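Q: Two folds, back to back.
A: First:
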Amino acid sequence: LAVCTLGSSTDEQRVDSLNGDVTKQFMLHYNFPPFCVGEVKPVRLSRREIGHGALAEKSLRPVLPAQDSFPFTIRVVSETLESNGSSSMAAVCGGCLSLMDAGVPISAPVAGVAMGLIKEGDQFVVLTDILGDEDAMGDMDFKVAGTAEGVTGIQMDIKVEGLSTDIMRAAMRQAHEGRLHILGEMAKVLAGPRAELSQYAPQHAEIYVNPDIIRLIIGPGGKNIKAITTATGSAVDIDDSGKISIFAPTAEALAKTTEMLKYYDQRPDLGKNYTAKVRKILEIGAIVEVLPNVEALVHVSQLDVKRVDKVEDVARLGEEMTVKVIEINGDRIRASRRAVLLEEQGHPWSPEDTARPAPRPRGDRGDRGDRGDRGDRGDRGDRGDRGDRGDRGDRRGGRGRGRGDSHR
């Protein structure tokens, strides 16, 4: 029984090796419970299981897709339910079928077969697909796995002093014939990888954001990214370059996760309304945050449809207001609450309105009454030639006094 499970990049196995920490994208776990051979023993991991699992894993690894084109973590678990032959080669065949059934785009199907040997003097017989007794009483256990084109894994145990070239040629030839036969039987069930991933596999997508906003996506202490993964059940892997890998349980969760992440990497659209938070109060207006890390100025003349004497009368620090983006000039953005209020009154806004400054209402000046007849101011006449007024000196010292004049 072979089961293939696909996970996100965060599910990779971390191995503390002699060469340092390494990760494994592909894992094959081989289990050989005692009941498969009719025995009752404690169920615990053995060196035999580790070795057989490593052989099956290395036999399948060459046909797996590159991580760049298939970023999923792959785990195959092979459960031996009954054994009277090579269960490790059965793990290769079953593991290959499970990979193809899951939609993993392997380059070619892989099968394996165990070859045996009976040798007496110079005479020998190579056995194909040996049983348990042939393994126990024979002189060789030679496991060969591969595709129709070549070998991907071998492992040999022998009980004789050595093998001749003729024996090896015969063993490899028969192993190739046996492998082709098994591949043919496998093809009757599933000839190649399914065109699409299993419906139970995680949904995957990659998006790219400005690296400068990664800190906003993560948030203080990881607050923002934790909120996203908790709300959607998705796994998110963020690279310093701005590449974000998303693994979601469903297509709906993938779309929601993508939307929540892109919220932090938006630019405002001209003429669009936003619910903004007041970040700063200035004498000329209010600074509001229309999008994460995107601020706009709401001029005092754009705060209301009526005259606003003090910005604090309309905008208070930390409060939210609905504003319309009315101008984008590089990184300088202007917004208007007045335009939103006018729209609610049936006066739609257009970009041309930005070119015309908002009129400042003059208020009700009341009835100024009858100011009466101010009379005829008459002809003020010709004021004539005022003549030469002379040198008036420096007038800063007083009328009629020059700078040098002094009176004590």
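A: Second:
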Amino acid sequence: MPNYDFLVSTKEGTIIRLLNTLATPRFFVPSEKLNDLLVEYRNLIVSFKDSINIIKSYLRNNYLFLMTDKTGVLIAKYGKVEFEDGLIELRLGASFAENSCGPNAISLAIKLKKPVILLPSTYPQGCPSSLFYYSVPLVINKKNTICYLMVCSSINIVVSEIITITQLLKDRIIDKYSNSCNPKKDKKIGFTEKQQLILELLSKGMTTQAIALELGVSPNT
């Protein structure tokens, strides 16, 4: 019996309604294996932290950023969010695989190989339901998925803002990581002038639609 329903697919991701899930991961990798993972993904973790350090000054709301390996094991995190249903246990090494905590944004992104959106209204009764979850695969060379990024935030934040910030962060992490894998390029990585302007306007409370009009571009650009 499926644990979820597909609602609609958009350019930003597939919106899914959960029928049942678990609130807390049941499985954690042993400390020795976790240490091996942290070494294996060191360049990605550094890229994640460096990108967060740049973007956090533009954030006017609370966000929780999570990065997992290709199987859904948590290897990096930043930030926190509060909600009335409580907070799932989020220590490094937690598995977001479906057999560990039921279907969730990360496990579904892994299964579908595409971005996944979980809106508060799509959660079954009794599960944490006051957060918006957006999970995206990080892909290099158009085919190699290297990890997964999930962003959680309050329902009080405009969905388009969360999606825009996630996409900008994803692109920056990929650029930083790709550059670290090829040090001969010695390329300085940062947000483009347009990306930085988008972040500045978001931090001032402008909607993505208003920003698109301001810059003369499509909201999906």
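Q: And?
A: Helices lie at 31-40, 42-55, 98-101, 105-112, 159-181, 193-203, 208-215.
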